[in-house]
Design goal:
The chain is mostly beta strands. It contains 2 helices and 23 strands. The chain has one domain. About 5% of the residues lie in helices and about 45% in strands.
């Protein structure tokens, strides 16, 4: 008997109404994506008894806790990325009809999500009461955007049949966004110098275990936003802002320079994915000589700053999905 094929697989996901009750698969509410990488699975953590004995062999193993964890990675399509962004940020304001605009912002709470997975059309599982601990969206010059979710949850159930057949949930096959679709704005001005983007929204979720093998709950922690990008070192403007506190480079300041950043990806008038960070602070802006004479590129790292009002990050997604 041959081994099962690994390239027949998918990930499906839908928001739960409440903790403790897994979502019932609904058309137009559930989304099914092919994997780029990663996986989701039940977790089992082990330890060993430690006690004196008449020999030097290791102790007896025991199971400490269970739960769900995963790091599935998918391509960015505007229909499904809106769901991931809503799951990780928590608030979605929708306008439009037929063609919808989702304005997704940071909220104090995030929804519980049910995930399902298929491996080789043989292993089907349901994972309930999950939070997105983090979401990383990244791309580079000429490359597609990918989104990798770090998932933590409470309970897995092995299923005996495909959960996406009644109703039928089709595998996502829409347009995959590419960095060639990008319009980048830095400090309010458009720039063509940035050749990559790596954005992470991190909820720092932790698992609570009490008197059972399965965890009691998953809990959000401090929200952190980090942004990395490569910028062609063509002018001193951004370098001066980081090291000297202003674009002229004549200042000497101990103040952290802050600016704003927008990354917008368009696929026609009614389909878009846009990330707006109203305030970011540079934490790294390295430049170095190159003996080969290659053009200098600075790999910049910045963090999101809490604004005086509004959301620390806003994602706008235009698509044909009415709600998540």
């Amino acid at each position: 008997m041959a081994g099962l094929r690994g390239n027949t697989a998918w990930l499906m996901y839908q928001k739960q109404t409440v903790k403790g009750t897994p979502a019932t698969v609904e058309a137009l509410k559930a989304f099914k994506s092919p994997y780029v990488g990663g996986a989701i699975a039940p977790t089992r953590e082990f330890d060993q008894l430690a006690e004196t004995d008449s020999n030097r062999d290791q102790g007896v193993s025991f199971v400490k806790t269970g739960g769900v964890s995963g790091n599935p990675e998918v391509y960015v399509r505007d229909a499904s990325i809106g769901a991931f962004l809503f799951y990780v940020l928590g608030a979605d304001a929708v306008t439009g009809a037929a063609n919808y605009t989702h304005t997704i912002t940071a909220a104090q709470s995030i929804p519980y999500v049910t995930f399902w997975n298929d491996l080789s059309d043989t292993l089907f599982e349901r994972h309930q009461d999950c939070f997105l601990s983090s979401l990383e969206v990244k791309t580079s010059a000429g490359q597609p955007l990918t989104a990798q979710a770090n998932i933590m949850g409470l309970k897995s159930t092995r299923l005996t049949s495909d959960p996406s057949t009644s109703p039928v949930i089709s595998l996502q096959n829409g347009y995959v966004y590419n960095y060639n679709n990008a319009t980048v704005t830095l400090g309010g001005g458009a720039t063509a110098l940035i050749s990559s983007m790596d954005l992470t929204i991190d909820n720092n979720v932790t698992v609570q275990q009490t008197d059972d093998f399965l965890p009691y709950d998953v809990v959000v922690g401090q929200r952190q936003i980090s942004l990395s990008f490569d910028i062609i070192f063509e002018t001193l403007a951004e370098y001066n802002k980081f090291h000297y506190g202003g674009e002229s480079g004549t200042e000497i300041s101990n103040q952290i320079f802050t600016t704003s950043a927008d990354f917008q990806f368009d696929n026609g008038a009614n389909n878009q994915v846009k990330f707006t960070l109203p305030t970011i602070a540079y934490e790294e802006f390295p430049v170095a000589p190159d003996a080969s004479g290659a053009p200098i590129t600075a790999s910049v790292r910045a963090v999101g700053q809490r604004p005086t009002s509004g959301s620390i990050i806003t994602a706008v997604v235009k698509n044909q999905v009415a709600s998540y």
